[in-house]
Amino acid sequence: MSDTLLQSTLRELRTLLSRPRLWLVFALVVGLFSLTGPFGTYERLPFHSRLGYWLSLHTGAWGCALVCVAFSDAALSRRVAHRMIRMLIGAIVAALPIGVVITAINTAVIKAPFNLSQFGENALVALPISIGFCVLAWLSLSSGEDTNAARKHDADDTPASIASAPPEATITQTSVNRPDRPALLDRLPIAKRGSLIRLEVQDHYVLAVTDKGSELLLMRLGDAIVEAGAGQQIHRSHWVADRGVESITRQTGTNPRLMLHTSDGQTLPVSRSHTAAVRTRWAGRLNR
């Protein structure tokens, strides 16, 4: 596995594990299974043993599903357009290791035989469970989550209209006459939906930075720019919002380049292909 794919998988895992909804459902499922004792565990095991059994089984099963879903999402990001389909492929593959986990735990706890037949049965049982987990994970990462609450929360963060800049032929230029709130903020956790400062490419992800924090989004920079509102792409890996620009300076030397200083304390290079647009758009912030 390449370092880039490994890093993308780990970032996807971190994103999934940071969702409180996922942990809440996990706790509810473990509690429900421990209380009701399905699959004969109520008759075979006392409550404390049932709790340990279902906690171990669900921890192993959810762990396998998380890894497979995150890996599939990262590995297929450039081949399969729809995220739900990518995650579903990972969930189907996860049924195999989950079947092994169930078979091993059943052998250790309730003395079930450990053989190929049992593994096949448990893998079939694991398949709908894994698919259900995939749907839950996808809903947890849905970009439209808590949209109405976010709009109310961010009512004071609506960007003011600014003067229109010269049109550009590429996606590097975002319309500056948008009075509405950037749609990209709806992809962020509510606590981080502040004033957008900048976007930065990191492997298959885009790092969205606001004045309330940052978040990795699994999407292309071009797609993120379309939803970002008023700003300018300054480099193939960087886009900066109008209100995120503190100042612009010129490097010294025989071949000087512009350097843009952002409100979150970063200094970013301006590529030569974007220099003219940056000069035009933010002429008032250029240090002579």
Write the layout of secondary structure elements.
Elements: H1 3-17, H2 20-36, H3 41-44, H4 47-75, H5 83-110, H6 116-140, H7 147-153, E1 196-202, E2 205-210, E3 213-217, H8 221-226, E4 231-235, E5 238-241, E6 245-250, E7 258-262, E8 267-269, H9 275-281
Antiparallel strand pairs: 1-2, 1-5, 2-3, 4-5, 6-7, 7-8
Helix pairs in contact: 1-4, 2-4, 4-5, 4-6, 5-6
Keywords: Membrane, Transmembrane, Transmembrane helix
Protein name: LytTR family transcriptional regulator
Pfam families: LytTR
Characterization of the model:
The structure is a single chain. By secondary structure, the protein is α+β, with helices and mostly antiparallel strands. The chain contains 9 helices and 8 strands. It has 2 domains: 3-140, no CATH class; 149-285, LytTr DNA-binding domain (OB fold (Dihydrolipoamide Acetyltransferase, E2P), Beta Barrel). Helices cover 48% and strands 14% of the residues. The strands form 2 sheets. The chain has a 5-stranded antiparallel sheet with strand order 3-2-1-5-4. Strands 6-7-8 form a 3-stranded antiparallel sheet, with no helix packed on it. A hairpin with a 2-residue loop joins β1 and β2. α4 packs antiparallel against α5 (83-110). The longest helix has 29 residues, at 47-75. The model is unreliable at 143-179 (pLDDT under 50). Keywords: Membrane, Transmembrane, Transmembrane helix.
